[in-house]
Amino acid sequence: MKEKQRARLENITVVLHRPKFAGNIGSAARCAMNMGMEKLIVVGHPRPDEEAMRQMATHAAAEVLDRIRYFDDLPPALEEFHYVVGTTARRGNSNLRRIMVEPGEMAEALVDLSRNNEIALVFGPEDRGLTNEELDHCHLLVSIPTSDRFRSLNLSHAVMILCYEIFRASREHTGRFTPRLATSGELEDLYSHLKEALWNIDFIRDENPDYWMVAVRRFLSRVPMFSKDVKILRGVCRQLNWFAQKQRS
């Protein structure tokens, strides 16, 4: 009897942010296809060399390349997703102050989330990875353990490891249910609204409001939020703005 999969792999998209080499895009497409994930987004790369991509993807993953979606910037690329996972090698960076897990733990969380939510796996450029600012768009950070003697991983290898862990975990059974979360776009609108409200009540400082918002974003990202939660918080923001305006008048 065919084993029933827990995850909806069709709800998981690999996002390559500013990849440098077309061949790596093709290899990543092949890796994702191997593990049953067939959606790929490429951000901030001028149209990559088609032949180089297809050579590395092979004929089997050509359909993944045919459906690639291209974006100029990361926020619009993530707007539709309910849950975003960012990859980073900077485990010891105290500036992150975020939940950091290994691929196996990530996979256990995602298989249930994937049933009712669109999920993005975000990989940074080959030479530097994702910046702290880019990681702020993510709900969860994952780091792949490597030998201290050689930490660098090829982009497609990182894609394969994460996709494999999700595929492996998806073959196990669970009774858990995770409802639909707020999208990245809804959260970004909330953060903008919240920034305005906190500035109006003098909670954040005029000279550098973005600095204070980093801490607020990271605090709110600790618990995944539903659309109704976002609506409640935006309602609070509207009341704060109304009260601040009333006080000034």
In the predicted model, the low-confidence regions spanning at least 5 consecutive residues are none
SSE string: EHEHHEHEEHEHEHHHH
Number of structural units classed as domains: 2
Shape: elongated
Could you name the CATH topology of the largest domain?
Answer: Alpha/beta knot
Number of discrete helical segments:
10
CATH architecture of the largest domain: 3-Layer(aba) Sandwich
Number of strands: 7
Strand content: 5-15%
Q: What structural category do the secondary elements indicate?
A: alpha/beta
Instruction: Specify the CATH class of the largest domain.
Output: Alpha Beta
Largest sheet: 7 strands, parallel
Termini separation comes to 71 Å
Helix content: 40-55%
What is the fourth-level CATH superfamily of the largest domain? SPOUT methyltransferase, trefoil knot domain
Radius of gyration from the alpha-carbon trace, in angstroms: 20 Å
Strand neighbour order, sheet with most strands: 3-2-1-6-4-7-5
Could you report the average pLDDT, rounded to the nearest whole number? 85
Structural features, described:
With 249 residues, the chain is α/β, with parallel strands linked by helices. It folds into 2 domains: 9-170, Alpha/beta knot (3-Layer(aba) Sandwich); 184-248, Orthogonal Bundle (Helicase, Ruva Protein, domain 3), CATH 1.10.8.590. The protein is built from 10 helices and 7 strands. Strands 3-2-1-6-4-7-5 form a 7-stranded parallel β-sheet. Helix 1 runs parallel beside helix 2 (50-57) and helix 1 runs parallel beside helix 7. The radius of gyration is 20 Å and the shape is elongated. The relative contact order is 0.15. The model has no long low-confidence stretch (mean pLDDT 85).
